[in-house]
Structures are given as C-alpha cells and as structure tokens.
Amino acid sequence: xxxxxxxxxxxxxxxxxxxxLLTEAMVDRGxxxxxxxxxxxxxxxxxxxxxxxxxDSLGIGYPELWKETVGRIEREAxxxxxxxxxxxxxxxxxxxxxxxxxxxxxxxxxxRSFVIRDSERDGIGLTEIGSDGVARDRTTWNWEGGTxxxxxxxxxxxxxxxxVPYLEYSMFSDVFLYDVDRDEEIRLTEGARIxxxxxxxxFEWDRRSGRIASGALYGVGNLPDGNQSIVAIGGDPEADxxxxxxxxxxxxxxxxxxxxxxxxASSGILVFSEKGLDGVERLRALRLSPDGSxxxxxxxxxxxSDRDVAMTPDFSDDGSLYYSGGSGGVxxxxxxx
Length: 337
Description:
4 helices; four-stranded antiparallel sheet; globular
C-alpha cells in the first residue's frame, strides 16, 4: 500500500493502517503490555495528554513512532519488491493519464472507454476517456462505486454497482446501467445488496419499455445472515423492476468475488472466486442450464498451500479463462481452458 502513498488520516483505510502499525510498534518498543497500559493511562487523564504518556512509556512520541514505523515497513517492502522484480515480467503500456485514481475500464459502442474515477478533488463517478486522452466526467456519485464496469454485448450500456442510501439509516449496493448514447443512468434494483454485475452474452436492454428484454446480469449478493451469494438479475414481464434470483449461496461467511460469464467454448459457465475462513481464495465454476438454473458446481483451482490464491477471473472470446494467481505474495496472470 505504501507504494501508492498513504492518504492523510482519516482518508480511506489510513486510520486502520495507522492504528494497526502503531499498536505493533508499541509492542516492539514497550513490550506486549504497552498498548493496554497506554490506553488505560490515556483514558484516565483529563485533559488528555497522550503525547506525554507515549514518551513516558516508549521513549518517543507518536510522530517519531510513526516515522520510525513507516521507515521499517519501507525497508521490508524493498526486500519484497526486489524479489518480485526478479520474477519474469510482461511489459505494460499506460493507456490513461488522468492524474486520478481509476479502476474498472470498459469499452462501449464506438470504441468509447469508461472508468470509475476516485478523486478527493473531483469525487467518485463515471468518467469517459476520449480518443484524445482527455477525461470527461459523466456522473458524480455521493457514495462509493463498485470495483469494475462491464459493457453490455451491444456496447450501448455500461453495467455497474454503487452504494446508495435506502430507507432510513441504510446503505445498500444497487445495480445500474449507464446509457452511453443518452448520457443517462438507469437504476435497476433498489435495496438489493448486489454488487459488480456481469451481463450474459445474450443480455439486451429495451430502451423503449425500460426493461431487460433478454438475458441476465450476474452479481454478488449480500444475504441478511452475513453470507454472500451469486445472484441473477433478469427481466420480469409482470413487474416494473427486474427479478432477482439466487444461484449459489456461500457458507461459513465466505467472501465471493465478482463473477465472469463464459463465452465461446466456455458458454454457460459462470466463474467466481470464493474465500473461506481458512483465508484461501479459490475459483468456483457454475454450469448454467438453458433455463438459467445451476446444473453443476465445482472448484476449478486447488491451492497447494494456504498462501495460494486465485481471483478476478475473466474470459476471452474464444472461451479461455484468465485470472490473477498468487503464491506467497507474488501474483501473475494465468490462464486455463
């Protein structure tokens, strides 16, 4: 994480990173009882004088402790990066230069490119990258967006999820389409707790009726019991909103990754990552019947150790499956059929 620079507290996960590393540094300097002792002493002092307590207990204050901690992490990371840099490497080419954090690149009709921007200055939303390399913001969201964008088969819409308020005091992830030609955002679900939709090869949105004409969107659903599921969102001629149907439910609070639908030789196969309580992340495949139901489910990667992971699957047009595979902190792009 330090490679990208740590955002000022309390931005993003910096507060958690700060607290975790600082507590670890307290133990290194003051022994296992230091965090508890410092917390107890701080809570009994009015006005709070936490800097003095830190100096009495650790010999240095918090600013010096943080600087010392970051320096240690950078030295350890340097050794890891040197080892990773020694791995065979594929040349990469930059295709955007927005000067902002972006993710989820998708190509739409006419070769237009879209990304999710995440900028403290310009907010979170959908941004189009023109053929001239210029970024043009298309939507602005008040809350966090999903992890990716997906183009529909005809390229006329972009599918994604984002966090929205629902009823009072609730925040859920709902599924949206962005109409590229009309510059219009279409909300498909309300309070659904579904993220990262994947259009099926036969998905089609009927602009005139405002309904799903064919196919489905597959996403990750959050269940009330804390588990996650793979959900199909399809058209419903009897309702104004699409119909949601659970295809697979995880157990033991497993975390499920965004699904990918097969094409070509892998047509009818839905693949996603599943991370159990053991911390191991594997790829699972569901075979879908013509009626959309699941006819089979099985693992397609089997880790050799608890440090092996497989995630972020995607299919090429010929049906080859690509995914990010890691072992001991080193990640490479892998493929299988």
